Amino acid sequence: MIAYVVASHGDFSEGIKNSAFMIFGKQEKVESVIFERGDSPDELANKYQKALDQFDADDQVVFLVDLYGGTPFNIASRIVADNIDRMSLVTGLNLSMLVEAFTVRDQDIKQVVPHLEATAKAGVRHLELQNGSED
């Protein structure tokens, strides 16, 4: 089972985790990490370590992070780089991605990561309405 670390600037990660649980049901091995205003990168690294400590040492872990290039991404990418055999990182966190992540967590991490990336992109859509015509 893949474990997930859901991370963001501010409370977004906790809120989206709770929303996903509301839709899909509470999930084990899902930890949210909040990068708060005033936190240092070292404090965020400690929060990540505390989240990872909740998982088994051999768990595959995917970090789902809000923004590419932000501090949550930068710190998580260092952790992933040190554990490339069992960890990955995906940015652009959205609710479609997180709910889908729960459905594929029994698959290999190498299959899950591109699937979640595609799911997140597919979740961005617009409602296209046309004026009805009565002929």
Automatic annotation (TrEMBL):
GO terms for cellular component: cytoplasm; membrane. It comes from the Bacteria. GO terms for molecular function: kinase activity; phosphotransferase activity, alcohol group as acceptor. Keywords: Cytoplasm, Kinase, Phosphoprotein, Phosphotransferase system, Sugar transport, Transferase, Transport. Residues 1-124 form the PTS EIIA type-4 domain. It is found in: Cytoplasm. The keyword Phosphoprotein applies. PROSITE patterns: PTS_EIIA_TYPE_4. GO terms for biological process: phosphoenolpyruvate-dependent sugar phosphotransferase system. The keyword Nucleus does not apply. This is PTS system, mannose/fructose/sorbose family, IIA component domain protein. It comes from Pediococcus claussenii (strain ATCC BAA-344 / DSM 14800 / JCM 18046 / KCTC 3811 / LMG 21948 / P06). The lineage of its organism: Bacteria, Bacillati, Bacillota, Bacilli, Lactobacillales.
